Known about the structure:
The chain is an alpha/beta fold. It is 24% helix and 21% strand. GO terms for molecular function: catechol 1,2-dioxygenase activity; ferric iron binding.
Amino acid sequence: xxxxxxxxxxxxxxxxxxxxxxxxxxxxxxxxxxxxxxxxxxxxxxxxxxxxxxxxxxxxxxxxxxxxxxxxxxxxxxxxxxxxxxxxxxxxxxxxxxxxxxxxxxxxxxxxxxxxxxxxxxxxxxxxxxxxxxxxxxxxxxxxxxxxxxxxxxxxxxxxxxxxxxxxxxxxxxxxxxxxxxxxxxxxxxxxxxxxxxxxxxxxxxxxxxxxxxxxxxxxxxxxxxxxxxxxxxxxxxxxxxxxxxxxxxxxxxxxxxxxxxxxxxxxxxxxxxxxxx
Length: 278
């Protein structure tokens, strides 16, 4: 008998259409997607009007995307999907530095700077010394580790958001550790800022009673030969949005100390890298 579509047998009817030559992984992913999607629709008893609204929402999300803006990633971020995928793919034992979301404002090719140099080119904001060590899981310093760092400016914008108002490479730089594994650079104490919220995702947040803000943080990508790459932030612990990050990026282990010392701030944080699997 043919497998016709019905409300009761909707999942089986759709999944039965997959060809025999479909790869096992694609078969598993798509079969699960269909199963969960149909279960969701049946659970909430989705109306025709709600289905049409969802199609319009996804259409508008795609239409606002450009080379400079990826609204679907923003949607993934605000629904916690980006962080969940990252967590599943970067499980690490206690003590190893945890990952968090990359964010949309990383720019490859930032200038290499001398240890201790400043990344703040516009001279705005509260100065902050960032320092610490890059270690292996045995507590040994890692020589030749590269730290690609970037942050927003004192007004809460990254240089790529204000190409005419900020110097190129403002609050960005790459540093390489010596034999002692230590790093240090001057920047500014970062400030909280809203994610882009003038599109469909922003309207979704308003409808859900949510704000669009990220707590203040410094971005790091830490790499070293023979070790897993760490993509992470260090967060300012007393930020008003620390417990309600719009993209769910905060983890307890990534909240760093920020201490005022005279006119400057100081933030010390050690990165612990996992070796690559043999």
